[in-house]
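User: Predict the structure for this protein chain, please.
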Amino acid sequence: MNQELLQRITFNPSQCGGKPCIRGLRIRVSDVLALMASGLSKEEILDEMIDLDELDIQACLIFAASKIDHPVIKAA
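Assistant: Here is the predicted structure, written as C-alpha cells:
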C-alpha cells in the first residue's frame, strides 16, 4: 500500500523547481507538511486544497517519513 501511495508523489524539473509534488499538481509535499505543522487538521487542508484527497495527505506523510529514516553514524 505504501508504494502505491508513494506513486502519488511526482517530480517534474519544469514544475515547482523539481520539488516533490502531489499527482502532478502544483501542490508541493512541503506545502502540505507545513500546513500540518502549523496546526491545520487534515479536514482543514482538504477544505483549502480542493484538488487533494485523504490519500494524498497520507502519501505526503509516508514520503516525509521515508526521507528521515536513515541510520545514525557515529563520528570516529
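The radius of gyration is 14 Å.
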